[in-house]
Amino acid sequence: MKRPEWIPAILSIAVFALFWYLSKDFRDIPYLISNTTILAETGLMAIGMTLIIIAGNIDLSVGSILVLTACLMPKLAGHASAPVAILIAVLLGAVMGGINGIIITKAKLPSFLVTLATMAIYRGIAKAMLQADSAEVAPNVKGLDRLSLLGMPYPLVIFLVFALVIGLVLHRKVLGRWLFGIGTNSEAARYAGFPVDRATITAFAVSGALIGIAAFCMDSRLGVARPDMAPGIELQAITIVVAGGTAISGGKGTMVGTLLSWLLMYFVTTGMGVMNIKAEYQLTIIGLILIVSVFGQQVATSIASHRLPKPTKLSTKP
Amino acid sequence: MKHFSSLLLLGALVLAGCNSGGSGTDTSSTATNTGNSAPSGDTGEKLKVVFIPKDTANPYFKPVGQGIDEAKAKYNFDYQEQGPATADPTSQIPIIKDQIQRKVDVIVLAANAPNTLNEVLDDAKAKGIIVLTVDADLTGNESHRAAGILPTDFAKVGESQLELMGKQMNYEGEFAILSATTTASNQNTWIATIKEKLKDPKYSKMKLVDTVYGNDEPMKSSTEMEGLLTKYPNLKGVLSPTSVGLAAAAQVLENSGNYPGGPKAKNGGIHLTGLSTPKQLKKYVDKGVIEGFQLWSPKDMGTLAACLGTSAKRKKIDLKFGTEVDGPDGKKYKLDDKGVVYAGDLLTFDKTNIDKYDF
Questions:
Q1: Are residues A147 and B183, on separate chains, in Cβ contact within 8 Å?
Q2: Which ipTM score applies to this complex?
């Protein structure tokens, strides 16, 4: 009961069982594994978003970073090899994320405001650059989603590896401790000698770098990049993070929660998709799941705190 | 990426086959009886046909779906419509993936972008699914679908719209275009044709002052229309070749009262025309806000799609680029060298005939 992630975990299992029972098209494990390629990109964005939200911030510009990176990468990489293209995408994303972090910390502006602005700026640049055109992706970097490792498509492997690595950094390393500290009380963290600015900028830059990887996956999957693609993907990433139990006010959250919430979202969207549930109902249901998950975790946490064993009183007797 | 290069090779082969026009060999079908037996009265296995519109909110696609739906008994198939919530270049990809998994036989698609769906459509083709585009084709990527059904010869729409606009405003004065999105390929084609045709001496006194984009959203379209009215006091005409834009513009124009015969008509008022369905604009035509507008019959696209898709799946016809195939009404339909086929001609709706149409 101390870990509220059991809510998205149970919801995942329930949703999985429900669609397994309802739809023969869902009852297909190889399909369920191979179909992860699209949401894996959003998953990569949710990993970085977890760091940012835990530190008490938000990044509304992640979708715009994704799109601008996806549009710039083919232009800059040209026909360079895949590793070079990935490196370019990661650097682009990290720079854009870093810029967010620098403005937020140095100008002391709320992240909501700054990233609301960069959301418009980054997407605006992509639109100004390409107008109604598209950026063609070089043939040698296409089709990553069709390659697999250990029976899983590459984007899924990449997502899981980064969830593990960043999860370890968040929960086992000093950077993670700083982020939790900043999210709980940034002033206190500053007085405690935490490098608040540096840690915040790092979180935004790491998030940007992960978005760079997501942008590469997207380019590779679509074979083309357009400035008008993936609208609203930032809200999807934020939804995954908060439905996974990360407190929007900061200071609380886990990577396991984000991962489980991603899985829940995956089962829900895939199940409703193969059952051809109407798009408007799909949106409503996802909204409901967000509420149920967040509310359930809040209730679970409060029950858990009531049930905590009372601290044993120190004996006053000599 | 070994796997991938073989796919690419396959794609290139398919492309080569299609580009050779009429003489090319079709890789997906072995049918030979093209043009002999008219496709009708199917009693074989029931097929699954799904229609993917641009999004669920656009009323323009309702009759297309209706056209398919009404043909389901004749061609023996189950029909479903499944559109994305938003009309963006990537929102149809997961839906197409879902349909492949659902093992549908025919996908009828109004593509949101001409180039983002190539990979997933190739997957569908590899599974033997017949993919037909309706209304919005994959311009430049025609090899990724079996055939593209266009409502009418688009090359003539721009011209026809300009002529109607010209007639209404007496071939004189300033006019503006209220379009859908900057990336909508059909809109851009028409705007380009209009600009080209304006060089004609017949239209020399007409001046296109602005082109604005309402993104096919009612709110944004209204705002853009209001913007036009304030920005250009001498405006004589507004041309909105999109159903969402035209309806929004009509409401704004009615509120302003500045239409021919309107309570606040200035210099004869602003003439509004464009493309839309009769049902949607009937009240504005009755009130005189709009004199006349045009459209093809979207329903015919649906009927043709149902016929061609199921017939091709049953190998009764061969959708080979550059050939003629049998249509639903016994007429021959010609696929051009890009696999494009037109469903019919443009109709003009006004007070005299609007009651005759129910879509």
A1: no
A2: 0.89
Interface of A with B in 56-115 (CB under 8 A): 82
How wide is the angle at C-alpha B123 spanned by C-alphas B121 and B127, nearest 5°? 115
- Global pTM value: 0.77
Mean pLDDT of chain B: 87
DSSP states along B74-115:
TTTEEEEE---SS--TTTTHHHHHHHHHTT-SEEEE--S-SS
pLDDT, residue A309, reads 59
- Taking contacts as CB-CB distances below 8 angstroms, the residues of chain B near A215 are none
Q: Are B349 and B278 within 8 A, CB to CB?
A: yes
Q: Could you give phi then psi for residue B146, rounded to 5 degrees?
A: -75, -40
Which residues are CB-neighbours of A127 under 8 A, at least 6 positions away? A227, A228
Look up residue B306 and give its DSSP letter: H
What per-residue string of b and e applies to A172-203 under the rule 16 or more CB within 10 Å gives b?
A: eeebbebbbbbbbebeebeeeebebbebbbbb
| Residue A37 to residues A45, A68, B112, B121, B268, Cα–Cα distance (Å) | 13, 20, 21, 16, 58
- CB-nearest to B85 from A38, A270, A283 is A283
Read off the pLDDT of residues A240-272 as tens digits, 9 standing for 90 and up.
999 999 999 999 999 999 999 999 999 999 999
Residues whose CB is less than 8 angstroms from the CB of residue A302 and which lie 6 or more positions away in sequence, other chains included: none
If 0-12 CB within 10 Å is exposed, 13-18 middle and 19+ buried, where does residue A83 land? exposed
Over residues B88-115, the mean pLDDT reads: 95
Amino acid A212 reads G
Domain boundaries in chain B? 42-152+298-344, 154-295
Q: Where are the domains of chain A?
A: 6-305
Quote the minimal CA–CA distance from B68 to chain A in Å: 17
Model confidence band, residue A314 (pLDDT cutoffs 50, 70, 90): low
Architecture of domain A6-305: Orthogonal Bundle (1.10)
Four-way CATH pick for B42-152+298-344: 3.40.50.10860, 3.40.50.2300, 1.10.260.40, 1.10.3720.10: 3.40.50.2300
Query: B interface mutation test: which of A147, A224, A274 has the most B CBs within 10 A?
Result: A224
Task: Return the DSSP state at B26.
Answer: P
In eight-state DSSP terms, residue B72 is T
B interface with A, Cβ–Cβ below 8 Å? 1, 3-4, 7-8, 50, 55-56, 80, 82-86, 88-90, 93-95, 97-98, 101-103, 113, 115-116, 118-119, 181-183, 188
B154-295: CATH, from 3.20.20.140, 3.40.50.970, 3.40.50.2300, 3.90.1170.20 = 3.40.50.2300
Q: What are phi and psi of B24, to 5 degrees?
A: -70, 160
Q: Which two tokens stand for residue A139?
A: 């043939």
CB neighbours (10 Å) of residue B248?
25
